[in-house]
Specification:
about 230 residues; 10 helices; about 15% strand; globular
Length: about 230
């Protein structure tokens, strides 16, 4: 049986964020940049819920690319930042060692979110797959390219060599798998409400209007209609 038939689980996964830095994001044209950051942070919070080992690597931080999004760092305040000079993360020994340590615990499915898709994501994936028996799951909507075509054809190239394309919400729900898993249920729903767009809005509506749960935020009084006619 192909190992790709295995569902992503909290036990077989690790996460790698590549160059989620402001100057890199400024070059992204394949996805709205605010949406991109929302998805990156949503993925990070998802990994945190399930205690998924997470590595963060950066390139030329002080010379060019800037510091990692503070919203991402806030999710993993104790995680070391693996700085590089190479565009290819696999060229840096620190990155290899971090991934290998997690893979040794059975976490050979690497969920990747990075910038840019056509450069840093592609070169890392090709090199990593050539040297190891790891699997790579590329989070398409938490990665971005310098054009729609650049991102699309990079994802196509990755799929041709066995990289699995996924979305951040798909990964979250695959990790949760069963709504009866009460230990992570509330945290998952919280991330959905905050980061999952229309799905989150629908959950908010169902909770408050159908199940009569309290609203997520407190606010001032609601004033009744007062006709000016």
């Amino acid at each position: 049986m192909s190992s790709k038939l295995e569902i992503l689980t909290p036990q077989n996964s690790q996460v790698l964020f590549i160059d989620q830095q402001p100057q890199m994001a400024l070059g992204v044209q394949s996805i709205d940049r605010q949406l991109l950051k929302n998805n990156v942070v949503g993925l990070a919070k998802s990994a945190k819920i399930f205690d998924i080992p997470t590595s963060i690597t950066t390139v030329e931080t002080e010379c060019f690319a800037g510091y990692t999004y503070p919203e991402l760092l806030a999710v993993f305040p104790e995680t070391p930042i693996l700085e590089r000079t190479s565009m290819n993360s696999w060229d840096d020994l620190k990155v290899r060692e971090a991934l290998a340590a997690n893979a040794a615990d059975g976490r050979k499915k690497i969920v990747v979110s990075g910038l840019w898709t056509e450069v840093c994501n592609v070169t890392f994936a090709l090199s990593c797959l050539a040297d190891t028996d790891y699997e790579i799951y590329m989070v398409a909507d938490a990665s971005g390219g310098t054009s729609v075509d650049a991102h699309k054809y990079a994802m196509d190239r990755l799929a041709q060599v066995g990289v699995v394309p996924v979305t951040w919400l798909q990964v979250l729900l695959e990790w949760q798998r069963d709504w009866a898993r009460s230990d992570t249920y509330d945290a998952v729903i919280s991330v959905v409400k905050e980061h999952a767009g229309a799905y989150g809005m629908g959950v908010d509506y169902a909770y408050t209007m159908v199940h009569k749960a309290p609203q997520r935020v407190t606010h001032g009084p609601t004033l009744a209609p007062k006709s000016a006619a």
